[in-house]
């Protein structure tokens, strides 16, 4: 009907076309159609409008979502608006490195900072750290000009005081101050008072300037006595230095080499163990006497035992023949006080001696010459060479100052110090294929160390333990025998735990107060030890029962050694100055 109406309306407006006819169809205009769903774009228009407005506003630092791409300037623009200094949201956390905000790093030396800091607190001015060039100052400008921009570190305190006094004196002179006695321009009351600047200026030449000269007052009896004692001590020290014993040696044998050119220390070629097992000796077969005082230690020549080395309290070390003549072969003189300990090298061609003169000497056994001398200024109580053949240049010494000191004898330098003990170190015993060593001390403890590492890997100390001044290693290297000063011998395992073997305990002898040596037979079947009454005790290793005791010495039997080859023979030494050989 609409179309008809429009056709009729169109025809009434003007004349019809000559080609039109009532039968022709009119042009039809249809509305456009879209298959897309109808969307309300009102919100989109609002969002675009808001984003256009937001582009001109700063970004809120608390905001987590931004609905548009902000520009670089917006991201790095400073935060707008007031903020409380302690508020968490006062500044972005990424920019905060201090509770009050962001602190910039400044390349300034600590000394420069301290100088300006102290100058500001004393004078009221300091250099401006923000000034890039020149010397700008902040603070009290009047004080700056008065002090000529000096800092507290520019002038020593005495110099500052002197300048002040001179300035004050000049001011007084210019002001026409009243002249006083001596024409110095000082008030007599101030000159006599040491607390005033005038007195300091008057007596500035020397701390003793102006003191009364006259005869020295006489010393009191107590002062005289002290002065005499001090002079006597100085003389004794000088005498000790003057009495240093020269290193020398005396050979007592017939000849140093035999007809074949072999040295007197060379062991016999046919030396071999005399028995398959060890036997406890019964009788005395030989006595070596030559030391004028007690003998502190004896050592057989390594592996063969053809010689025996002895350390005497008469400052001498002697070596004796065992197989043939039974006489003293050589005497080594170099210590000025009693010799404490001796130790052979692996091949026996050299040995160490430690004396109470605080020296350790490394001797050539054959020639008697001193190869090296070592000292730390403390008394060495025990000396040992590393048993490894490739480490025979490493010396360990237990000192009276609680340290174990390690030297490289090739260079003469101290290479390590093991400092953990709380008392003088008495023994050093290598275990575990010489990778570790055990030390005992007057602090009543045992400590186990890794060789070369000054850190204790095992610390053994119990309330019931006593000091252990002598320790020996069992031939199978699995056990340690420790002479305890509560009159018993304790056995410790050399395994990882170094545990006390409570089933093995050797007792009956009296050793309290004496560092009597403990030792084993070569096959490990017997334990032997000296005691404080001059006896030598023999125990069975398995049953821990006493097998035999021998009355060996009149005084203390301090050292016992089982012969390495002749397994039924034992050597003992005592404080009576004798060395005895038992079979």
UniProtKB/TrEMBL annotation:
CDD domains linked: WD40
* Keyword Iron-sulfur appears in the UniProt entry: no
PROSITE patterns listed in its UniProt record: WD_REPEATS_1 (PS00678), WD_REPEATS_2 (PS50082), WD_REPEATS_REGION (PS50294)
Q: Does the keyword Repeat apply?
A: yes
Q: Name one Pfam family in it.
A: WD40
Q: Which GO terms describe its biological process?
A: mRNA splicing, via spliceosome
Q: Where is this region: Disordered?
A: 1-37, 155-276
Q: Where is the composition biased (Basic and acidic residues)?
A: 210-260
Record GO cellular component, one term = catalytic step 2 spliceosome
UniProt KW keywords: mRNA processing, mRNA splicing, Nucleus, Repeat, Spliceosome, WD repeat
Q: Where in the cell is it found?
A: Nucleus
Give the WD repeat ranges.
288-322, 332-373, 418-450, 550-583
Q: Where is the composition biased (Low complexity)?
A: 1-26
Name assigned to this protein: Pre-mRNA-processing factor 17
Native source organism of the sequence:
Kalanchoe fedtschenkoi
């Amino acid at each position: 009907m609409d179309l008809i109406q429009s056709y009729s309306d169109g025809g009434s407006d003007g004349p019809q076309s000559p080609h039109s006819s009532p039968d022709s169809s009119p042009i039809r205009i249809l509305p456009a159609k879209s298959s897309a769903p109808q969307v309300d774009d009102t919100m989109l228009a609002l969002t675009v409008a808001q984003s256009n407005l937001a582009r001109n506003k700063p970004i809120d630092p608390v905001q987590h979502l931004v609905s548009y791409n902000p520009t670089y300037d917006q991201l790095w623009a400073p935060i707008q608006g007031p903020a409380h200094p302690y508020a968490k949201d006062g500044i972005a956390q990424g920019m905060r490195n201090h509770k009050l905000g962001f602190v910039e790093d400044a390349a300034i030396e600590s000394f420069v900072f301290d100088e300006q800091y102290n100058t500001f607190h004393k004078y009221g001015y300091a250099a401006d750290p923000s000034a890039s060039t020149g010397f700008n100052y902040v603070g009290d400008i009047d004080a700056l000009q008065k002090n000529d921009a000096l800092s507290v570190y520019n002038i020593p305190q005495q110099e500052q005081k002197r300048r002040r006094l001179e300035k004050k004196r000049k001011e007084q002179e210019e002001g026409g101050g009243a002249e006083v006695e001596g024409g110095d321009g000082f008030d007599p009351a101030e000159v006599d008072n040491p607390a005033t600047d005038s007195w300091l200026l008057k007596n500035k030449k020397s701390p003793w300037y102006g003191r009364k000269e006259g005869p020295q007052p006489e010393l009191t009896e107590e002062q005289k006595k002290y002065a005499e004692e001090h002079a006597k001590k100085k003389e004794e020290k000088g005498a000790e230095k003057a009495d240093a014993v020269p290193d020398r040696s005396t050979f007592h044998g017939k000849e140093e080499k035999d007809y074949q050119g072999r040295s007197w220390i060379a062991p016999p070629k046919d030396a071999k163990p005399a028995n398959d097992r060890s036997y406890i000796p019964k009788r005395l077969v030989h006595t070596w006497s030559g030391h004028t005082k007690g003998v502190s230690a004896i050592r057989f020549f390594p592996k063969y035992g053809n010689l025996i080395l002895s350390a005497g309290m008469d400052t001498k070390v002697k070596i004796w023949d065992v197989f043939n003549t039974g006489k003293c072969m050589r005497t080594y003189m170099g210590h000025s006080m009693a010799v404490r300990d001796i130790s052979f090298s692996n091949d026996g061609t050299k040995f160490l001696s430690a004396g109470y003169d605080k020296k350790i000497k490394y001797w050539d056994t054959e020639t008697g010459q001193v190869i090296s001398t070592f000292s730390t200024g403390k008394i060495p109580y025990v000396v040992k060479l590393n048993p490894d053949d490739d480490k025979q240049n490493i010396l360990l010494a237990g000192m009276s100052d609680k340290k174990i000191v390690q030297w490289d004898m090739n260079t003469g330098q101290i290479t390590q110090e093991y400092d953990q003990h709380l008392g003088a170190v008495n023994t050093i015993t290598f275990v575990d294929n010489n990778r570790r060593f055990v030390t005992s001390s007057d602090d009543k403890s045992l400590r186990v160390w890794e060789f070369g590492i000054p850190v204790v890997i095992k610390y053994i100390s119990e309330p019931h333990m006593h000091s252990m001044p002598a320790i020996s290693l069992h031939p199978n290297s699995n056990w340690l025998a420790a002479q305890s000063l509560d009159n018993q011998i304790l056995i410790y395992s050399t395994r990882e735990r170094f545990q006390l073997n409570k089933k093995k305990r050797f007792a009956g002898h009296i050793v309290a107060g004496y560092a009597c040596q403990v030792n084993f037979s070569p096959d490990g079947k017997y334990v032997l030890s000296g005691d404080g009454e001059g006896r030598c005790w023999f125990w069975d290793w398995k049953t821990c029962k006493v097998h035999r005791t021998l009355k060996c010495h009149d005084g203390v039997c301090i050292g016992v050694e089982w012969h390495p080859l002749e397994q039924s023979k034992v050597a003992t030494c005592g404080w009576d100055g004798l060395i005895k050989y038992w079979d």
